[in-house]
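Hi everyone,

Forwarding the result from last night's run.
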Amino acid sequence: MAKTKYSGVYVDDTGQYYYETELGKDRLTGKRLRKKSRTNRQGKKFTSALQAYKELVRVKNEYLSTQGYANYHMTYGQFMDNVYIPAYKTDVEESTFYVRKRTLERMRDRFSAIQLRKLSIEDVQRYRTWLLSEDGAGYSQAYASLVFGVFRKSLDMAVEMEYLEYNISKKVKPIPKGKAIVPYWTKTEFEKVISTICLDDLYEHLCFVMLWVYFMTGIRVSEGTALWWEDIDFENKRLRVHHILFMRNKMDWERKNYTKTADGKRIISLDDDTIRVLKDWKERQSELNIQDFVFSYDGMPMIKSTLSRIIGRYAKLANVHRIQAKGLRHSHASYLINEFNVSVLILSKRMGHSSPEITLKHYSHLWSGIDELIAEEMAGNIHIQTAPKSAIQFNGNQAIKKMSSARIPAKV
């Protein structure tokens, strides 16, 4: 090792230049912060002492401009475990954190050993590609967009907490959400599905009731699992949606006194067929002394994933395509639009949306072809009668004049 004329810059026995300096003390650990490098921030080796010195000056200025940061060498994993994940947990509902927790942990594990300040554009771009690639995570575009968005937000917080000067991920374009079309069942497909269910069997009877109520009301999955019999008004034929169910497991659950959105609290009118289906099921439940949950065969609520398994089982038996649990909500919207030409305002209120605009955003594609009857009625409605002779003097393009005169038959 030999010194150069630049303070803090050295050259080793192989002729490679590098810098070494002490930045101060870590405010959390009290340890001295030392920095040594043979490359610049792009990872290129120094070819001169001047280059090494300029990078040393930049590093010192960066450190001083942020007043030393709480932890200059903090890794992404440490940041996620000690800062972001705990903060996220306090900012969202317990049910939301329960769903997102694994996603946050996978994100943390990917960059765990990398120092926050050493995250590069290449790291971010490779992560973006991995999320969308079939050889990588293979996520849908909508889910990849959500995950990548959370990653960018985590680095936003690192900037706010003064662990970083800027968010490196903002130099990589975000993943667009895309337009996700949720598969659903038509009326005919739904009829095929329920035709495979035997009501003599207790559990199959419950499966029938669940599929029927979700298809005929459009309630969200967690709204349905939270339904109590007190929410059913048989006299006025109404269903009250005021709760959602948060389940950690079969024995650990909580019935929340709110819905996904403020407008989600609503009253849904029920048809006579649904009233009869519910009455029959309530009578069968009473024989088993089940009092509270509508969807239950043992007094306990149904796990959210149960509905997906029910759909899969009977879709296969009926030889129709499988849909997600939330596809029953879309099926209800399609049913009302295609069978009854329901207005967007009525559908919006029934689905618990805050405005018709939200309804159109999610279900506008279901109205395609709904104007065919109107088009048929339009035919012949306007009497077509044109003038036998032009009443205007046209002085425009001569080519048009020639074309017009060419269409006039010669007098015999």
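The mean pLDDT is 86.

Cheers,
N.
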